[in-house]
Prior knowledge:
This protein has 625 residues and is mainly beta. The chain folds into 2 domains: 6-225, Jelly Rolls (Sandwich), CATH 2.60.120; 241-624, Porin (Beta Barrel), CATH 2.40.160.180. It has helices at 19-22, 61-67, 69-73, 143-148, 207-210, 214-225, 247-250, 253-258, 332-335, 367-373, 389-392, 564-572, and strands at 6-7, 9-17, 35-39, 50-51, 85-90, 99-100, 121-129, 156-158, 183-185, 194-201, 261-276, 284-296, 306-317, 343-354, 358-366, 402-411, 415-422, 442-453, 456-467, 471-472, 489-490, 493-506, 514-524, 531-542, 552-562, 580-592, 595-605, 614-624. A hairpin with a 7-residue loop joins strand 22 (493-506) and strand 23. The protein is globular and about 85 Å long.
Amino acid sequence: MxxxxxxxxxxxxxxxxRELERxxxxxxxxxxxxxxESWEIVDRENExxxxxxxxxxxxxxxxxxxxxxEEIFGSRYEKHQRFPILINPFSPAFRSGLRLLQxxxxxxxxPSNNTKFLGKADRIVxxxxxxxxxxxxxxxLSLAQIRRLEVPVSSFHRNTALPKHRNTSTVPPxxxxxxPAYVSYNGPHLKSKFLAVSSVFHESNAIDRMKTxxxxxxxxxxxxxxxxxxxxxxSDHPTLYRETLTDDWFGAGPAMRDQGINLSGSLTxxxxxxxxxxxxxxxxxxxxxxxFLRIDGAKLGLWEGFGIHSHLELNYGQSxxxxxxTFAPNNLALNFPGANETLADLSLYSSQQLGDxxxxxxxxxxxxxxxxxxxxxxxxxxxxTFQHIEFVGPISGITPPMILGGIISVKTTPxxxxxxxxxxxxxxxxxxxxxxxxxxVTFNGSVExxxxxxxxxxxxxxxxxxxxxxxxxxxxxxxxLPTTPPAARTDDRWYAAYAFEQTLWRDAANPNKAVGLxxxxxxxxxxxxxxxxxxxxxxxxxxxxxxxxxxxxxxAAFYVGYAGGLKDGLRLAGLPARDxxxxxxxxxxxVTPWLHVTADLQAVRPPRADRDTAFIGGLRAQVLF
Length: 625
């Protein structure tokens, strides 16, 4: 029987960095995310190893364990419903030394039919460790000591009120767990980044049964993942396989992030035009450059939980973002911060983490970025998924694309609560500090609830906003006529919305591969808000085509109901007005990890009744730096 190899399952961890990629040449799913573990062999309800090649390719470890257990694994395991070992090379970043995860006491017996038990009994083999660069006066552990964990037991202590160990015997290789407590190593310091392979037994009473195959499994995982001298694999065309064009800033990225500086950037180019409809059919070329800078205050020597965030945007070239007589911009990326000229704008704000659940932000904040950060199947800032404003940052009439203000977010077990307080005047192309809140203040609150329908994750967001900013009242239908006296003003405005996202499918071997539904319905005062109501929905995600896991696709539709008074006024002015509706479909093709080409097509019924339906085509190319 031929051997089975499994696709790794990379796990994001708050303490993770990019060592699995930098040192061992692993291709991590997403640039600049903190991946701390690579699950090589796992059989859990929501995480599954998948055979990556051969006649059994695409089948899961659990399927092999269930249907061909004795043939592949041998006898004596008939009582175990799941394969009881998880093997995961990991690369944590702790500056306080080595911390092992909480585990059950070796005396605690877990029933073999308990498939949901997530407690762990660990055996750890270290493969690489380095000394702290800023603590070179301390003597590091020798590699032999690290591999065998040959350090005095007196160097270990429980982070509880239990007494510290006093004996000076050494811990033998594959020693049993220390019991139900976190264990810290307080001896000679390791570097903040180290690499180890941990074999985790899901069932404590399975240890004896499985110990005969543990060495073989560890060797298999280690040799497959970290063979040879632990140098990245070479390629005949290395540039094509980089995650970014600059290869993480020419190799300086990890060192920069160690010091608390995280820099990322992209250049997105658009070629777009009217394929059918009323108006010019000349296609236009434009581009957008994005540079993100995130500073970790703790790593920079400031204080824990503090951060600084900035986003520099540069738009250039030409873009008719309201082609065919449409009103809502069909290309938000080129419409914001401005179109048809070279424009640059900068968002800059600070954040402070308060405990484990609360975050406070203040400054000039890009609201389009905020929307993208809170969505998986919509958003995207218009540079890698949808382009139309309704799918990238739906029109609210009350929240500008760039705000000056503050945000507090609190995560609890049932829900996430967010309150935004900001100047109602857009801070686009200005600092916002010259005359802040001169026209009022806006309060915007939301509650996000998680769901798990049919075992698939989802979320539901209820939001409402109120602004003291006054505006033109649409109650007077003659307000747009040139002989009309100045239009009446109304003192405030409000807006409410419900949005959802629902996962339809997620790859157990790679959680970043997923397909889901999204939607939103909103309503407003309709005076002075020009949008009375709107609804949108769609489906998007990573490509279902085998071997195209980096590709993305999406199809969605929207309906914008403009304020009745606004439409009446336009009709009296000789402009036959109606609501605007349309749809968009795109496919994002990953030529390389750092080069993505997107084909985009939109069909929009313009708000002017005398205009034909606009069919807008476009090509987009994005380069990640």
